[in-house]
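Request: When convenient, would you put together a sequence paired with its C-alpha cells?
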Amino acid sequence: MTFAGWVGPAGNCKGETKYVDAYGVFNDVVVTGWIEIELKDYTAKMSLDANKLQLTSGTTCEASKRTCIGGDGSTAFWSTVDTGDCGLNKYSVIYDGFMDKVEDSGEKDVIYTLETEEYAFALMKKYVESVCGLDLIHSEHPRLLIVENAGISPMLRKTDLAAQNIDQFAYTNAKFLYVEKHLKGQLKEMYYKIINSKCELERQVLENTLSIATSQPAEVARKIMKEEGYTGVVAAEVLHIVKCTRVEVHIRKTNECYEQLPVSYGNETLFLSPRTRILVGNGKQITCEGRMPSMFKIGEQWYRSLPDIIDAPQPEILAPREMPKWKYVSPESLAIGGIYSERDTRKLRDLIVFPLEKGAVLNKIRRGATGQQVNTDGISISPFLNEKILHEIAESTWSKISAGFIKFGSVRAGIIGIFMVFRLIKLLVDTAIHSYALYELYGFSILLLGAIWDSVSHLLMHLGHQRQHREHRVARNEGNYDPTAPNE
C-alpha cells in the first residue's frame, strides 16, 4: 500500500512533496507499506444504569453510541443490550426453585429463607412493585428481588451467570442479613422454649398443689403465696387463703420429741407447725430417733430435736433436674453458601485473581519450555488434553511398548534356541555314555532304555555294581574251600 507519492505500473514513481509521520518530516519521498488489521471478540462490562461500557484497554465509553476508540488506538463496536419491554432483561436470575416463606404474626413480617449446600440467605419482605403483571417483592437489600411463582412467567428464566455480573457487595451483605435472621430465629426459639418450660412447670405445681387442698389447706396456701404465715380454709369448691399475724415466740425445752417445734408465746405453751409456721395448741408426739430426727430451719441455720434443740448439718437441697431442650443450630452452609452458588463465586475469584497470576503462570511455562527447574504446584495441563489427544498418546505409547516386548521376545527366543541345542547335544552325549555303561553291566537288554534318563541310569549302574560286588565276594568265599596247586 502506498502512503505517500505515486508508483506507476511500469516502475516509475513520483515523490510526495512533504510527508510527516512519527519518525519525522520527509520531502520528495515515496512511502509504501502494509496495514495489519486485528479482529478481537470479547465480552466487556457494561453498566445499564450509568450507560457506561469498559473496554479491556481500560477505556470507558458511552454505551449508547455503540462505538468507541480505545486507549491503544483500536476501534471497538458493540450492540446494546435490549432490556425488554418491561426492563426485566437487566436482572439476572440467581436462584430458581422452592424456598421457605415464614410469616410472623406477632411482628407482621414475611421472611423468605433458603438453606442448601450451595445457597444460604434470608430476606425480609418490604414492599411489592408490579411490573408487567409480575409482583417484584423488594427486600432489605435494594438489589435483591423476589418473585413468587416465577416459573409460570416466560420473562424470567435462569441462565448461566456471568462472572462480571456477580456483585460481591450484594453477596457479602446478604450473608450478614442471613446471619442476623438466623440469630433472631434462634433467640426467639430459645425464648419460647424457656417460657414453655416455665409454664409447664408452674402448671404441674398448681395441679399438684390443688390436689391436696382438701387434706392440707395450710400447705397449699404456703405454696400458692410462696412464703410462710398463710393458712387455707376449704369451703365447698373454693379455698380461702388467710394471712396470720406475725408474733414473737421462744423455743421451750421438753422431754419428748414432737413433729412440731415446741415454743412458748407469752404464758401459753404452743407448737410451731413446720413449713407453714402456724402456731397450734397441740403437737404430734413422735419417737426420738437420733438417726432420723425432726429438723427445723430457723433463719439460715438447721436444728434437730433429740428432744433438746441442737445444731444440725444442712440436708441435701433438691433442685429441678430438667435439662434444657433448646440447642443452637449452626448455619452449616454459611461458609460456602449465599445468594450465589459456589460455582458462581469461583468464576468471580478467577476473574479477579487471573490478572495477578497471569505473569507468574507465563513465567513458569517459559522456564519449563527452556528446560529450567519449575515448581508446578497450581498448574495443570489437563484442560489442553482432550479425549482425542489422550487416545493418540495411549496408542503411541502402547505401540512403543509392544515393539519393545517384541524385540525382547525375539532376543530371548534366540537365546532359548541356543540353549536348547546345547541341551540336545548334552542329552545325546549323556545317552551314549550311559548306554555304554549299561551295556557293560547288563549286556544288550531292555534296560538300555534307562540311558535316556540320568536318574534311571545312575540307579541301574548302582544296582549293577552292587550285584558284581556280591558275586566277587561269593567267588572268594568258595575259593577258600577248594585249594589249588600249581601245575608241574
In short: Residues 2-32 form one domain.
